[in-house]
Design brief:
This protein has seven helices and three strands, in the order H-E-H-H-H-E-H-H-E-H. It is mainly alpha-helical.
């Protein structure tokens, strides 16, 4: 590992992820469809990033495995926030079954009875580390989980609590390290 990157790794004591797709996302097919439409309209399109977000992507697997090694051997901890509300866009996006849609179906406005689906499923947004990861849900969909209304917002309270927890852990580690230096 490059010495500059080693310095970054050694200086990192916490990471916070918000709905990060470590194992892919549910809607890559929509991104690929939009990409094809843009390409057909004459735009220059590179859809590789969208393809890399598929759960079966070798690139995503390589990145995740590399990060797992850093997490295992590093001295940092992770807070993972997951979306607790499915996406409430169009009903046809929430369907788990792929099929052809008429334009009328595609343009339907979402009703409260239309089922919702997470953009990043729970099993994709968690790292799965038993001791270095703390998982929590934010009461929002993927698009809104980082948009806090005020200091009373569920996401704000949980996020600020995790930041405080990490800062306190870092403070205690620094005090412990200082005490060991004094004893030497």
């Amino acid at each position: 590992m490059d010495s500059d990157l080693k310095d970054v790794l050694n200086s990192t004591f916490a990471l916070i992820f918000f709905g990060t797709p470590h194992r892919g996302v549910a809607y890559t097919h929509l991104g690929l469809t939009a990409s094809k439409m843009a390409k057909a309209a004459g735009f220059s399109v590179n859809d590789q990033n969208i393809r890399d977000l598929k759960g079966s992507s070798p690139v995503l697997t390589l990145i995740r495995e590399g990060f797992d090694q850093l997490l295992q051997h590093g001295s940092f901890y992770v807070s993972t926030f997951q979306e607790s509300v499915g996406y409430s866009g169009f009903g046809w996006m929430d369907s788990k079954v792929c099929r052809s849609f008429s334009m009328r179906e595609a343009l339907q406005i979402r009703t409260p009875l239309t089922p919702r689906r997470q953009v990043v499923p729970n099993e994709s947004s968690e790292l799965g580390h038993p001791t270095k990861e703390r998982k929590n849900f934010i009461d929002a969909n993927h698009m809104n989980m980082c948009k806090f209304q005020d200091e009373y917002d569920d996401g704000y309270i949980k996020t600020s609590g995790e930041i405080k927890r990490h800062v306190e852990r870092r403070r205690l580690r620094a005090e412990q390290s200082q005490g060991e230096q004094v004893q030497s």
